[in-house]
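Input set for joint prediction.
Command: fold jointly, output tokens.
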Amino acid sequence: MASHFMRKNNIKFYFNADRIYRRYSVIASVIKEANVGEVTEVKGWVKNLRVQKELVFADISDGSCAKKLQIVIPKHLKTDELTYGSSVRVIGKLSKSPRGQLELAAEDVKVLGECVVLDGYPFNPRTTHSAEYIRQYLHLRCRTNYISALLRIRNAVSKHIHNYFDTKNYLHIHTPILTSNDCEGAGEVFKVLPDNKDTIKAMMQQDKNVDNVYFGSKTFLTVSGQLHLEAMCRGLGNVYTLGPTFRAENSRSRLHLSEFYMLEAELAFCENLEDLQSSIEDLLKYIFIETRNTNEDDLYLIDKEKNKPPTWLDKKFITITYTEAKDILKRKGLPDTEDGINKEQELALVAHCDNVPVFIVRWPKEQKSFYMKESQDNTKVEALDLLAPITGEIVGGSLREDDYKKLKLKLPSEALNWYLELRKFGNIPTGGYGLGLERLLQVLCSVPNIKDTLPFPRWPHNCDM
Amino acid sequence: MASHFMRKNNIKFYFNADRIYRRYSVIASVIKEANVGEVTEVKGWVKNLRVQKELVFADISDGSCAKKLQIVIPKHLKTDELTYGSSVRVIGKLSKSPRGQLELAAEDVKVLGECVVLDGYPFNPRTTHSAEYIRQYLHLRCRTNYISALLRIRNAVSKHIHNYFDTKNYLHIHTPILTSNDCEGAGEVFKVLPDNKDTIKAMMQQDKNVDNVYFGSKTFLTVSGQLHLEAMCRGLGNVYTLGPTFRAENSRSRLHLSEFYMLEAELAFCENLEDLQSSIEDLLKYIFIETRNTNEDDLYLIDKEKNKPPTWLDKKFITITYTEAKDILKRKGLPDTEDGINKEQELALVAHCDNVPVFIVRWPKEQKSFYMKESQDNTKVEALDLLAPITGEIVGGSLREDDYKKLKLKLPSEALNWYLELRKFGNIPTGGYGLGLERLLQVLCSVPNIKDTLPFPRWPHNCDM
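tokens >
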């Protein structure tokens, strides 16, 4: 690090010596470096314990990787407190087992925190608990293989997303969580106000509605950062955001959350859907392949059977128009719906395409939002949904209406005059899309329930902790 | 990209050909690569226009970097629409000006979007508008030098933070925005409920309070992800979060926002304040030095005078106890305050330390939160504040109480029993800190008002867009 610091500014840098990180080694590094013969200190939790005649074998994890480090403990160092679930500090010499596996021959073992399973610890050794059971213990579930692996993959996917956009010269924009826009048509919203009645009283002016007192207007949790990104795109070029988004819907399905993460990107000077599609396809393949490179062990930990790359990774995504999609569904004999394509139909279309992700493009304009650019025939908009196996819709996007007069006619509220004004001064064509991070993780890791793809899921009647 | 994709998985990858990115070149790349003689297409906004006898000189920016690209336009290609603020597409050959500056000799110029300043565009050519003036036009202000430079630096600082923690094996955790914890003692909170009365009606059970209907308990916007991080730290090891945080305070100072970004880190197996301090100092110096490396031009654009590295960058941060700090303030003759250290006193302490950041450590326990670890003498806690020039307090942190019995006595609410239970099963010592991203940007870029360090500031009576 120090040499890196010195690189350019020629600053005499006070070197911190990285005290805290030298004290002990993270197991991910110990396994990677495999310095056989070296005295090493590790700290972590006992995941498995096998007591034999003269030796005790303990598998230790510190959460830094999917793999455990095997510790070989002479019987006289085994205390009663050294149990499944306890936290320990171990000092010893790294060696290779007769089978060639890296292990640590313990010379000193200290239990830092006991774990008495009979005292109410919900997890048991050598037991695979169901995801539903584990989900009851949100505060402890990151100690399980399943959830820890998913959270490491979530961390990696976020990193890959940032790296991807950084390489392509996109700026990461923190779009706001609080917004006074209430008319984006993306479903139901949460409103926000101070909890303290005294604050409201002190700020009250002329019998204003209590909802408006703090910010001067009714304020909501964001349903999308798109409109804000469009403002940024018209000064900074390509931009994206990756952050929390909210829906106040009464839905408890395996695909819905009240709070979820959304990746949204806005492409400057984007003039046709094909460019938007190729950009989305490129990103998704990048994430899938990079994550397989960085987190192979975690994918294996989640599912020993399913951790193969998806069959579509070497294929071009399919594109069909909305009209063609409806025809296919009719031919398949699925019950017709007047408007749109429902979840069952989405999954049928993906199956029809041999489980290759499929773009449905050019939607009837009355089904889509006001900001989408009209197609040449005036009945459609330049919009796309990308459907994938497991979740169905995973990305939604469009070109944006860049004609000032057309947009003015469709603007749902005067409160959005700022958005209209973006088209008045030095306007550019743009297009963009939104991708649900949790649904992406469901597809990537074959996770049936979206609630297991993030640390603290929130859905109706559930906001524990 | 393609070769990178092939690296490991041996997948026959469908190559997207990166259509959209080849169409035109981002100005940051054009300037970096400086391929004199190459035919190049750029798109951007006219920032400056000088009309001479036979040639027109236009400075073009596309937001990708602080620098503008000079375009040399033969007079016959200059149309009336080619004005300050308009968006353009230019094709031409890259060359060097007589002074050695890279420029583009235009062969084709197309105005994409007009900009009639007299029609209400708030910015004028060759004019430096004040930050207060610019702040009135949130939707357009990213087109100014000041704000675009600050947003590029914000992007870079976020990136450096993620890179720093990734290198050190920390996992990035998305702690929740919605929480039912209301007792962390970090000030005033916003409450959240569905806006739609029909949703509330449909979900209502037995005359419940309307605030509790959707989630089953009253729900707030997070004031800190710390308690959630502590749960994660006890399964995943070192963790951090970088995300939005909220305060419902009626404060309109140049240092406060209702919505701001906080970096919070929790260090596994951290047993003393000194380790925590050296970790914070290391991170801050890394961010400052890396940002000077990546965004020198932006720092210059913000302030031609002040873009020098801070004098403290090659010095060790200072540490004094709370008791010593109070003695220093008394000797300086500053009016005494009973509890704590106020903003004026913070800045006086930093000045006393020759403007080197200073840790104030070991605070009276009654001034700090319940979760902080008691010092040996039982009257203090192992807490720290880091004070910096310009903003005063910039980091707050502590060791966490890891004694189950002591914590049980101090727990403010039964709703936090989950937090107590973390100490019961395989507990470990931890410590952590929180750093306000906007205040960090204020210190880094000498920005007087916090509202200019993020794209869409929210404060009392202000939640536009």
